[in-house]
Amino acid sequence: MPIPQYDWQSRDAAAENVQLAEAEKSRAGRITNMKGVLLHSVPAFKLFSAVLPLKERLRDTLGSRAVDVFSLAISEDSHCILCSLYFRRALIAHGVDPDEYTPTEDEAALIEIAHRIAAEPAAHRNPPPMALQTLKAKYGSELVIAVVSYGSAMLATNRLNTTLGIPIDDDLLPTLEATSAPDSNAA
Question: Do 61 and 135 fall into the same domain?
Answer without folding.
Answer: yes
